[in-house]
Amino acid sequence: MVAALFRDKLPQPEDRVLYPGCGTGAFVGGVLRWCCARGIRPPKLVGVESNPRLAEQARAAYSGQASVEIRDADFLTAPLQEYRFVIGNPPYVPITGLCEREKALYRKLFKSSRGRFDLYLLFFEQALRSLKPHGRLVLITPEKFLYVETAAPLRAMLAQKDVQEIRLIDEQTFGDLVTYPTVTTVTNSPAHGSTLIALRDGREVRGSLSPDGGSWLPVIHGSIERPGVPVLADICVRVSCGVATGADSIFVHKVGVLQDGLRGFAFPTIAGRQLGAENPDLRTRQAMLIPYARNGRLFDETELGALGKYLRQPSIRTKLVRRTCVRRKPWYAFHETPPLPDILRPKILCKDITAKPQFWVDRSGKLVPRHSVYYIIPKRAEDVDALCSYLNSARVREWLDANCQRAANGFLRLQSRVLKRLPLPTELMYRARAEDQHGGARRSPRESRRKTAARVSYAFEFAR
Ligand SMILES: C[S@@+](CC[C@H](N)C(=O)[O-])C[C@H]1O[C@@H](n2cnc3c(N)ncnc32)[C@H](O)[C@@H]1O
Predict the structure, then answer these.
(1) Hey, CA dihedral for 104, 108, 110, 114, is it positive or negative?
(2) Which residue's CA is the nearest one to ligand 1's atom 10?
């Protein structure tokens, strides 16, 4: 980081380097060693630290250095001064770590204090404001500012400057703290040319960062999207989240404990946690009791038989009635009506949130995905294996990495609106076009549903 700070900008003794949130002063040592190794006089170093104990330790550590000044101050609220260089490792403090007074104050002072902001975003903004024209900043932060919605204002601010490098560095940089660290180098000049992006696999690419606050991941990972290229939605009947009952503890049971009368309503079901290398055949012992007919119609209470008797038990009925989702529908309905004619056909399954997306084929078509599973149903059942192997390719993984939102722990969220946009390779494109020529993709939704229902009737026989 020190080398990046001074690349093509040799520091002069009269230059000042700001080190916000300096803690005990790690980068002070870094700058002094860098200068000493090159036989040059170090610039002035100003560390700003709000924790007096740490500030005192930093002062003690560099007491013999006339060029070093450590200030006890709040970097975010202290009067601004301009520096030729800024270097640092800002505090990573989520909004939950701030008191109401701090939140209100920061919301007034910073453009980057949008939504559930993190303190490092504000440090970034303040560090940018502290730069002299043509000055340089190097900060190490979590990578999230590259893509989360909350950081859109910061991205818009940064994109006006000359962002020279974004280095996604080793995940182990901070030991077990998973922060996906990223070192960003910015020069305070108007944006021009492209940004060098160093990826964690060692590759380096160049790209122009979107100036409107949009996610930078598509540029960073190199998008495979091309206008006019068919996407997953073109060859699928459905790309959806699994069935939400609104009360899995009541509707989902081990198959072995079900009474005979309930078995007629039971469908094998699978949850996200059951998808994994250790279960390649998608085995499950869980069943979902479904009070819907095969055409998707909710059974009348008089048709429910043993299921009705089970659901009407006072403790169970009370829980079902309390669900807000049944305010405008019968008390035993699911949170969402399960589209059974679509679900019970050969399909591809994946977890809704995962570190590494992986896809499995339910060839029999009899599994009902739980809410923690996404399911993808190709229009032609014979495409299911080719499509699944494409979805498991490195190319798709890269695209998902670049386009999916991330959960707080860095895991990818596989949302259907994103999955539907996934570009298809030539082979599957050809199938999509062939289907088109036979009226597939251009069918009206009603006609499509009718044909689908006819094709999958066998699946119900199998499942029941
Ligand atoms: C991630 S640590 C970095 C310190 C570390 N020695 C380094 O540079 O690697 C962030 C530091 O910022 C300090 N800090 C937090 N909020 C601050 C603020 N508003 N003003 C100044 N320092 C602050 C913390 O006390 C902590 O020492």
Answers:
(1) positive
(2) 91
Neighbour order of strands in the sheet with 353-354: 353-354, 412-413, 405-406
pLDDT in tens, 195-250: 999 887 777 888 889 888 887 877 776 644 445 667 898 889 999 999 999 999 99
**Among 420, 402, 427, 421, CA closest to 412:** 402
Atom of ligand 1 nearest to the CA of 19: 8
For residue 327, the one-letter residue type is: R
Residue nearest to atom 14 of ligand 1 (CA): 21
CA distances from 215 to 54, 145, 159, 209, 404 (A): 36, 9, 11, 9, 10
SS3 category, 95: helix
Residues 6+ apart with CB under 8 A from 463: 267, 268, 344, 366
Helices 384-391 + 426-437 axis angle, to 10: 140
Contact (CB, 8 A) for 335 and 323 = yes
The closest residue, in CA terms, to atom 9 on ligand 1 is: 89
From atom 24 of ligand 1, which residue's Cα is the shortest distance away?
A: 21
Q: Which residue has the tokens 């380096």?
A: 204
Q: From ligand 1's centre to the CA of 440, what distance in Å?
A: 59
Interior angle at CA 344, CA 343 and CA 348, nearest 5: 65
Q: What residue ranges line ligand 1, CB within 6 angstroms?
A: 20-24, 26-27, 48-51, 54, 74-76, 88-89, 91
Residue bearing the CA closest to ligand 1, atom 19: 74
Count of CB atoms within 10 A of residue 23's CB? Answer: 18
Residue among 22, 62, 99, 173 to mutate when testing ligand 1 (max atoms within 8 A of CB): 22
Residue type, 358: Q
pLDDT tens string 147-170: 777 899 999 999 999 999 999 888
Please tell me the predicted confidence (pLDDT) of residue 294: 84
How many angstroms separate the alpha carbon of residue 38 from the centre of ligand 1? 28
